[in-house]
Protein backbone atom coordinates (compact mmCIF):
# COMPACT_ATOMS: atom_id res chain seq x y z
CA UNK A 1 0.00 0.00 0.00
CA UNK A 2 2.82 2.20 0.67
CA UNK A 3 4.02 1.89 -2.92
CA UNK A 4 0.57 2.48 -4.15
CA UNK A 5 0.21 5.72 -2.22
CA UNK A 6 3.72 6.72 -3.22
CA UNK A 7 2.85 6.18 -6.82
CA UNK A 8 -0.29 8.29 -6.44
CA UNK A 9 1.69 11.08 -4.81
CA UNK A 10 4.32 10.80 -7.44
CA UNK A 11 1.77 10.90 -10.24
CA UNK A 12 0.08 13.95 -8.67
CA UNK A 13 3.44 15.61 -8.26
CA UNK A 14 4.42 14.81 -11.84
CA UNK A 15 1.09 15.98 -13.21
CA UNK A 16 1.45 19.29 -11.31
CA UNK A 17 5.01 19.57 -12.50
CA UNK A 18 4.00 18.84 -16.10
CA UNK A 19 1.11 21.28 -15.98
CA UNK A 20 3.44 23.95 -14.60
CA UNK A 21 6.00 23.19 -17.26
CA UNK A 22 3.29 23.39 -19.93
CA UNK A 23 2.16 26.73 -18.56
CA UNK A 24 5.74 27.87 -18.41
CA UNK A 25 6.37 26.71 -21.99
CA UNK A 26 3.21 28.53 -23.13
CA UNK A 27 4.46 31.63 -21.35
CA UNK A 28 7.89 31.29 -22.97
CA UNK A 29 6.28 30.68 -26.34
CA UNK A 30 4.03 33.75 -26.03
CA UNK A 31 7.01 35.77 -24.86
CA UNK A 32 9.00 34.62 -27.88
CA UNK A 33 6.09 35.53 -30.18
CA UNK A 34 5.84 38.93 -28.54
CA UNK A 35 9.58 39.49 -28.86
CA UNK A 36 9.61 38.40 -32.47
CA UNK A 37 6.70 40.71 -33.19
CA UNK A 38 8.39 43.55 -31.38
CA UNK A 39 11.57 42.91 -33.34
CA UNK A 40 9.61 43.00 -36.58
CA UNK A 41 7.78 46.07 -35.38
CA UNK A 42 11.04 47.77 -34.48
CA UNK A 43 12.48 46.85 -37.87
CA UNK A 44 9.41 48.25 -39.64
CA UNK A 45 9.46 51.32 -37.45
CA UNK A 46 13.13 51.95 -38.12
CA UNK A 47 12.59 51.51 -41.87
CA UNK A 48 9.62 53.88 -41.79
CA UNK A 49 11.48 56.48 -39.75
CA UNK A 50 14.53 56.29 -41.97
CA UNK A 51 12.41 56.73 -45.11
CA UNK A 52 10.45 59.55 -43.48
CA UNK A 53 13.57 61.36 -42.29
CA UNK A 54 15.26 60.84 -45.67
CA UNK A 55 12.22 62.31 -47.45
CA UNK A 56 12.14 65.41 -45.28
CA UNK A 57 15.88 65.80 -45.42
CA UNK A 58 15.72 65.69 -49.23
CA UNK A 59 12.84 68.16 -49.17
CA UNK A 60 14.82 70.47 -46.92
CA UNK A 61 17.86 70.23 -49.20
CA UNK A 62 15.72 70.99 -52.26
CA UNK A 63 14.19 74.06 -50.63
CA UNK A 64 17.56 75.18 -49.38
CA UNK A 65 19.03 74.86 -52.88
CA UNK A 66 16.10 76.85 -54.33
CA UNK A 67 16.62 79.51 -51.69
CA UNK A 68 20.35 79.63 -52.40
CA UNK A 69 19.71 79.81 -56.16
CA UNK A 70 17.42 82.77 -55.59
CA UNK A 71 20.03 84.37 -53.38
CA UNK A 72 22.71 83.79 -56.03
CA UNK A 73 20.34 85.21 -58.66
CA UNK A 74 19.84 88.29 -56.51
CA UNK A 75 23.59 88.68 -56.04
CA UNK A 76 24.15 88.36 -59.79
CA UNK A 77 21.39 90.85 -60.44
CA UNK A 78 22.99 93.31 -58.02
CA UNK A 79 26.33 92.84 -59.75
CA UNK A 80 24.78 93.41 -63.19
CA UNK A 81 22.91 96.43 -61.93
CA UNK A 82 26.04 97.90 -60.39
CA UNK A 83 27.94 97.32 -63.65
CA UNK A 84 25.16 99.00 -65.61
CA UNK A 85 24.92 101.92 -63.21
CA UNK A 86 28.69 102.40 -63.19
CA UNK A 87 28.67 102.38 -67.00
CA UNK A 88 25.80 104.83 -67.00
CA UNK A 89 27.61 107.07 -64.52
CA UNK A 90 30.74 106.93 -66.67
CA UNK A 91 28.67 107.99 -69.67
CA UNK A 92 27.15 110.79 -67.63
CA UNK A 93 30.61 111.91 -66.53
CA UNK A 94 31.75 111.77 -70.15
CA UNK A 95 28.72 113.86 -71.14
CA UNK A 96 29.52 116.36 -68.40
CA UNK A 97 33.12 116.57 -69.62
CA UNK A 98 31.81 117.08 -73.15
CA UNK A 99 29.62 119.96 -71.94
CA UNK A 100 32.57 121.41 -70.04
CA UNK A 101 34.83 121.19 -73.12
CA UNK A 102 32.11 122.68 -75.30
CA UNK A 103 31.70 125.59 -72.92
CA UNK A 104 35.48 126.15 -72.92
CA UNK A 105 35.59 126.12 -76.73
CA UNK A 106 32.63 128.47 -76.95
CA UNK A 107 34.16 130.83 -74.40
CA UNK A 108 37.42 130.86 -76.39
CA UNK A 109 35.42 131.52 -79.54
CA UNK A 110 33.53 134.31 -77.82
CA UNK A 111 36.75 135.88 -76.61
CA UNK A 112 38.09 135.88 -80.18
CA UNK A 113 34.98 137.32 -81.86
CA UNK A 114 34.17 140.98 -81.89
CA UNK A 115 32.10 142.83 -79.33
CA UNK A 116 28.87 143.09 -81.36
CA UNK A 117 28.16 139.39 -81.57
CA UNK A 118 29.55 138.73 -78.08
CA UNK A 119 26.28 139.38 -76.23
CA UNK A 120 24.19 137.25 -78.58
CA UNK A 121 26.67 134.33 -78.49
CA UNK A 122 27.03 134.47 -74.71
CA UNK A 123 23.24 134.42 -74.37
CA UNK A 124 23.10 131.52 -76.86
CA UNK A 125 25.86 129.73 -74.93
CA UNK A 126 23.96 130.10 -71.65
CA UNK A 127 20.74 128.82 -73.20
CA UNK A 128 22.52 125.92 -74.93
CA UNK A 129 24.48 124.86 -71.82
CA UNK A 130 21.40 125.14 -69.60
CA UNK A 131 19.32 123.10 -72.08
CA UNK A 132 22.02 120.46 -72.52
CA UNK A 133 22.68 120.21 -68.79
CA UNK A 134 18.98 119.93 -67.92
CA UNK A 135 18.49 117.37 -70.70
CA UNK A 136 21.38 115.23 -69.43
CA UNK A 137 20.22 115.47 -65.81
CA UNK A 138 16.70 114.54 -66.88
CA UNK A 139 17.92 111.43 -68.73
CA UNK A 140 20.23 110.48 -65.90
CA UNK A 141 17.45 110.69 -63.31
CA UNK A 142 14.93 109.05 -65.63
CA UNK A 143 17.09 105.97 -66.27
CA UNK A 144 18.24 105.87 -62.68
CA UNK A 145 14.66 105.76 -61.38
CA UNK A 146 13.70 103.09 -63.92
CA UNK A 147 16.53 100.79 -62.92
CA UNK A 148 16.18 101.48 -59.24
CA UNK A 149 12.48 100.67 -59.41
CA UNK A 150 13.30 97.48 -61.34
CA UNK A 151 15.91 96.60 -58.73
CA UNK A 152 13.45 97.25 -55.89
CA UNK A 153 10.81 95.09 -57.60
CA UNK A 154 13.26 92.21 -57.93
CA UNK A 155 14.32 92.68 -54.32
CA UNK A 156 10.72 92.65 -53.11
CA UNK A 157 10.05 89.52 -55.19
CA UNK A 158 13.09 87.85 -53.63
CA UNK A 159 11.95 88.82 -50.14
CA UNK A 160 8.47 87.51 -50.88
CA UNK A 161 9.89 84.16 -52.03
CA UNK A 162 12.15 83.91 -49.01
CA UNK A 163 9.21 84.68 -46.72
CA UNK A 164 7.14 82.04 -48.53
CA UNK A 165 9.84 79.39 -48.15
CA UNK A 166 10.39 80.26 -44.51
CA UNK A 167 6.68 80.02 -43.79
CA UNK A 168 6.56 76.70 -45.64
CA UNK A 169 9.46 75.38 -43.55
CA UNK A 170 7.87 76.56 -40.34
CA UNK A 171 4.58 74.86 -41.22
CA UNK A 172 6.37 71.55 -41.75
Automatic annotation (TrEMBL):
Transmembrane portions of the chain: 6-29, 41-64, 70-99, 120-144, 150-169
Domain of life: Eukaryota
Keywords carried by this UniProt record: Membrane, Transmembrane, Transmembrane helix
Keyword Transmembrane helix appears in the UniProt entry: yes
Name the UniProt record assigns to this protein: Uncharacterized protein
Species for this entry: Acanthosepion pharaonis (Pharaoh cuttlefish)
